[in-house]
Design a protein that fits this description.
With about 170 residues, this protein is mainly alpha-helical. It is about 55% helix and about 5% strand. β1 and β2 (about 115-120) form a beta hairpin.
């Protein structure tokens, strides 16, 4: 990603989703079907929803250049497919953020049923980040209930892995 102010936020967004997908790839099918009260649904359904929604946000923000994922296709995607799509989304977010974005430009999303939403670019970007964080947290909660240690996916972990966080011990 370039030097955009949002580079790290979306870099983390994609990185954390990929790490979580990779952690989930170690699970048995019964574990992927685990649901926890208060969350979206099963682990696999939540991951599908997270990635599918990202496609929707990108499609809306790119005027359809990034395709949406059909609901029927989304419902059948496995973790390998979700990972491949998320990797493509990383490049799409990078390209979008390199553009001349005005956070106040209102973007209209038209749905098949004739309804539409109107929201500024800044709100749509904030929603994409919030949505990803919320659902990744839900999956981590479900993993914990299974006795599986979730991956470290916070922003500090992202910065550490990227070599952009330095710890300096106290002087002795």
């Amino acid at each position: 990603m370039d030097g955009s102010l949002l580079r790290d936020a979306f870099g983390h967004h994609v990185w954390a989703t990929l790490r979580l997908i990779d952690a989930c790839r170690q699970l048995e099918p019964e574990q992927l079907a685990t649901s926890v009260p208060g969350t979206y649904g099963s682990i696999i359904d939540t991951m599908r929803h997270l990635v599918g929604a990202d496609a929707g946000y990108l499609s809306t923000l790119t005027d359809g250049r990034v395709p949406r994922i059909d609901d029927a296709d989304e419902a059948q995607m496995d973790l390998a497919e979700l990972r491949a799509v998320t990797e493509r989304h990383g490049a799409a977010w990078t390209a979008l953020l390199k553009g001349d974005l005005d956070p106040e430009t209102v973007v209209v999303r038209r749905r098949d049923d004739g309804s539409e939403t109107r929201a500024p670019v800044g709100i749509r970007l904030a929603q994409a980040l919030h949505h990803g964080t919320d659902h990744r947290s839900q999956v981590c909660t479900a993993l914990t209930t299974l006795g599986v240690q979730p991956p470290e996916i916070d922003v500090w972990d992202y910065a550490w892995q990227d070599g952009r966080l330095t710890e300096i011990p106290p002087a002795v």
